[in-house]
Amino acid sequence: MYLTFPDLGSFIAFIAAIVLFWGALNPRDQxxxxxxxxxxxxxxxxxxxSDIFASVSAMLTVLLINETYTKRYYIFLSAIILDIAGLAYxxxxxxxxxxxxxxxxxxxxxAFSKRLKSGVIExxxxxxxxxxxxxxxxxxxxxxxxxxxxxxxxxxxxVSFFVILLAGIGLLSLGNIALTTGSDRLRxxxxxxxxxxxxxxIGPIMIAGxxxxxxxxxxxxxxxxxxxxxxxxxxxLASLVGIRYPVKTLPYxxxxxxxxxxxxxxxSLMFAGLATGFSPWYILLFPIVGSIVESVTVSPLxxxxxxxxxxxxxxxxxx
Length: 319
Prior knowledge:
Layout: H1 8-25, H2 30-47, H3 52-66, H4 73-90, H5 95-112, H6 114-125, H7 131-154, H8 157-181, H9 184-191, H10 202-217, H11 221-244, E1 249-250, E2 253-257, H12 258-276, H13 285-296, H14 303-318
């Protein structure tokens, strides 16, 4: 990686994008300024090793999430779709940079936004209080995890990643339509899976951000499917079993149980063995570490981020 832009035109385009990003974000408080700074640094890092489309996608992701449940959302939705289409048309090989830009930008947007950050905390505090909602959430997550794995096994990485990314944007857009249009049917669908008085969509945004982050950095197909199973399906099983059959509370985290931890670890270990034939041997460490990290994560941290982050770090040392 060289600290230079590919050409003068790309440099000018990047500066113009930063200026437009500042104007669109219109930062008036410390949180918004932090979002601008971190996103600009992320965009610069992406830009020095890729084209302008991947770099701009980070800024558009922040603006898109920042404007959820407003009519301005659709402006940035159109912009990010055009940006993704441009990258796919001109340089499909940059899809890894696109995923990294979108996933990290989504995390930045949620981590520093006053509105969304409080939603993350409320989301964690209200976990388990409404069994029917929790069941619906976890079943939806299980189905999503199965679909993601099916995509990874059936198609190329590029096709899988773009479909998953666009599906995530589509789901977020449906949530936006539900709240801005007042559609009772759509609102009923989304709130059947959302904890009361919690900002709609916080959980899916965090899951998508953490999963896409792992997808962007993990090159091994066999390792990637093990991580995806652990992060999405294993986590859903931990919640389903942990809430309904807690068995015994963990001594280091009173909000989670031995039953939930085992419900995540055992199926994930079984899948890892079946998917890889136990080769290499250290593949089994990923479900174990993921289950431990999930069990120790406490608010304001989110296990949808801590688990994939920890597994990516583990992969950096082992693979």
